TrEMBL record, chain A:
<dbReference type="GO" id="GO:0050897">
    <property type="term" value="F:cobalt ion binding"/>
</dbReference>
<dbReference type="GO" id="GO:1990170">
    <property type="term" value="P:stress response to cadmium ion"/>
</dbReference>
<dbReference type="InterPro" id="IPR036876">
    <property type="entry name" value="UVR_dom_sf"/>
</dbReference>
<protein>
    <recommendedName>
        <fullName>UVR domain-containing protein</fullName>
    </recommendedName>
</protein>
<feature type="domain" description="UVR">
    <location>
        <begin position="132"/>
        <end position="167"/>
    </location>
</feature>
<dbReference type="Pfam" id="PF02151">
    <property type="entry name" value="UVR"/>
</dbReference>
<dbReference type="GO" id="GO:0005507">
    <property type="term" value="F:copper ion binding"/>
</dbReference>
<dbReference type="GO" id="GO:0008270">
    <property type="term" value="F:zinc ion binding"/>
</dbReference>
<feature type="coiled-coil region">
    <location>
        <begin position="132"/>
        <end position="167"/>
    </location>
</feature>
UniProtKB/TrEMBL annotation, chain B:
<feature type="domain" description="Phosphagen kinase C-terminal">
    <location>
        <begin position="24"/>
        <end position="254"/>
    </location>
</feature>
<dbReference type="GO" id="GO:0004111">
    <property type="term" value="F:creatine kinase activity"/>
</dbReference>
<keyword id="KW-0067">ATP-binding</keyword>
<dbReference type="GO" id="GO:0005524">
    <property type="term" value="F:ATP binding"/>
</dbReference>
<dbReference type="GO" id="GO:0005615">
    <property type="term" value="C:extracellular space"/>
</dbReference>
<feature type="binding site">
    <location>
        <begin position="176"/>
        <end position="180"/>
    </location>
    <ligand>
        <name>ATP</name>
    </ligand>
</feature>
<keyword id="KW-0808">Transferase</keyword>
<feature type="binding site">
    <location>
        <position position="92"/>
    </location>
    <ligand>
        <name>ATP</name>
    </ligand>
</feature>
<keyword id="KW-0418">Kinase</keyword>
Length: 170, 358
């Protein structure tokens, strides 16, 4: 088998990876594998797939292209254009997330499980975010308890909600 | 500690110690990507920008709660020789991307369980790497380091998108958790593909290095989370945990089954590989890795006695180009490295004095 990158040396480095049920194979010669980065390291971190996955999505998915609007859309904070982003697969700054949101959101739905972060919130700077999340959770639970006619538990939750609400106000 | 100490073969805990379930799980790793608020990401940043990021990280390492988790030493990539950089990569302490980025640096802790890359693809990449199967401990450590840094650093964070990263495949938690597993018998019996395809449907990715044909090189697989947005850190770790447990059980069952039904096949394979490693005069890295995998299996099953089980991961790192050349104190051609590699493995096998085949 020949190297899929340069096409003129024998492929000796073979990578297989399975991402979300899809199998990708890479067949490279030693030289090209080295150029792509250290094979062993790539194996540890899977840097290969990320690029492949992204560029694949952006080049093939008409929905992404269409929603992105003009590929000349530019982030005013760092100057990156959407078409540059789709080639590199990297943003230039945090503001790019807003600037390219129309093109980015359908893409995130495909590569991630949702559009909404539910994980960790920074302790110091997160401020009231963690409290507000807890409030949402408690209010949902309160509704369930009321529906199930567990009024004692509901009363306890209501007190908890009030206490949290005052803390958020402060 | 000097740089030379960090480059020494056995300074890293993950290479030195075994850890839980070490017959199957080589190491557990958690990486967290963070960026500073209002700062251009390293890809477009000027040298001046990167210098300021570096100073902010160094300050935090000295004066925040992070300092209690240290000590940390800072190494700038531009001060390191090419071979030294390569050794740090082979020990999984830094990534190749860090070298390519001008202004790249790393904060290292002497046990090498913690490394914080500065100015790689993201401003900060916290990495924790522990031996064996201890994903939760690894995550807790990374989480503490993150809290420590945040005492003094404002992160780029968005309530909806979470921690904002240079690549959208990391946005949200910014976390990539992974375990490296040695699964020789699942490969030998051909069950591996079916099992791995199934596990990837729960938002996980599996990677292996393959040699000619379909044999996975070294039978080493890396399982990691693919999703970073829409799941909590605990859910991600939990998913990985569930799959790892299954794989450990499958591999152990397969080993016992094969031992009962085809002991000769297994012993022959293990002993042939031991013989080659004990006597070869030149060997390339791919063959070395697959022979070492056989020997390791032989040790786990009691076919080979008196050789320490750590030999696979130890030599997996030590026989790579950078580490070989570092130990030799000179640069070498690939052919010279093959000779040197074979000698190193022979010496290592004889270093365990009572090594024998049962
Ligand atoms: Zn090639
Ligand atoms: Zn931008």
């Amino acid at each position: 088998m020949m190297c899929e990158q340069c096409g003129n040396r024998t492929a000796t480095v073979h990578f297989t990876e399975i991402v979300q049920g899809e199998k990708n194979e890479f067949h490279l010669c030693e030289t090209c594998a080295k150029e792509k980065g250290y094979a062993a390291y790539q194996f540890m971190t899977g840097a290969f797939s990320v690029n492949q996955l992204l560029s694949g999505l952006m080049n093939l998915d008409p929905a992404v292209k269409q929603r992105a609007g003009s590929s000349q859309t530019r982030c005013e904070s760092c100057g990156l254009t959407f078409s540059q982003f789709s080639q590199i697969g990297r943003f230039g700054c945090a503001h790019c997330y807003e600037a390219f949101a129309p093109g980015l959101n359908p893409m995130l739905k495909k590569i991630q499980s949702s559009n909404q972060h539910v994980g960790k919130v920074p302790k110091r700077q997160g401020g009231t975010i963690a409290y507000r999340r807890e409030l949402t959770r408690l209010r949902q639970e309160l509704q369930t308890r009321i529906q199930q006619e567990q009024f004692e538990e509901a009363a306890r939750l209501r007190d908890q909600i009030r206490e949290l609400e005052t803390r958020v106000m402060e | 500690m000097s740089l030379e100490d960090y480059l020494a073969q056995n300074s890293a805990t993950w290479l030195k110690d075994d850890g839980p379930e070490s017959d199957i799980v080589i190491s557990s790793r958690v990486r967290i990507a963070r960026n500073l608020r209002g700062r251009i990401f390293p890809m477009l940043a000027t040298d001046q920008d990167k210098q300021e990021i570096l100073e902010a990280a160094a300050r935090a390492a000295k004066h925040s709660a992070l300092s209690k988790l240290g000590p940390f030493e800072l190494f700038a990539m531009r001060d390191l020789s090419e071979v030294d950089q390569q050794v740090l990569i082979e020990k999984h302490l830094i990534s190749p991307g860090l070298i390519e980025s001008s202004g790249g640096a790393v904060l290292l802790r002497p046990d090498e369980e913690v490394s914080i890359m500065v100015n790689e693809e993201d401003h900060l990449r916290i990495q924790c790497l522990l031996p064996g199967y201890q994903l939760e401990t690894t995550y807790r450590l990374a989480d503490q380091l993150d809290d420590g840094l945040e005492e003094m650093i404002d992160y780029a964070f968005d309530e909806e998108k979470g921690y904002l990263t240079a690549c959208p495949t990391n946005v949200g938690t910014g976390m990539r958790a992974s375990i490296m597993m040695h699964l020789p018998v699942l490969v030998l019996t051909g069950h591996i593909n079916r099992i791995l395809t199934a596990v990837t449907h729960v938002g996980l990715a599996v990677r292996g290095i393959y040699g000619e044909g379909s044999d996975a090189l070294g039978n080493l697989f890396q399982i990691s989370n693919q999703i970073t947005l829409g799941q909590t850190e605990q859910e991600i770790i939990g998913n990985l945990h569930g799959v790892a447990r299954q794989l450990i059980n499958h591999e152990r069952t397969a080993r016992q089954h094969l031992l009962q039904t085809n002991r000769v096949l297994l012993e022959d394979r293990v002993c042939r590989s031991f013989g080659i490693l004990a006597y070869a005069r030149q060997i390339d890295s791919k063959e070395a890795l697959s022979r070492l995998s056989d020997v390791r299996l032989g040790i786990d099953l009691g076919i080979i006695r008196g050789v320490s089980a750590g030999i696979l991961k130890e030599l997996m790192v030590a026989t790579q180009p950078g580490s070989l050349q570092k130990a030799a104190g000179q640069t070498m051609t690939p052919e010279e490295r093959d000779v040197r590699r074979a000698a190193l493995i022979r010496d290592r096998l004889r270093a365990d004095p009572s090594s024998s085949l049962q």
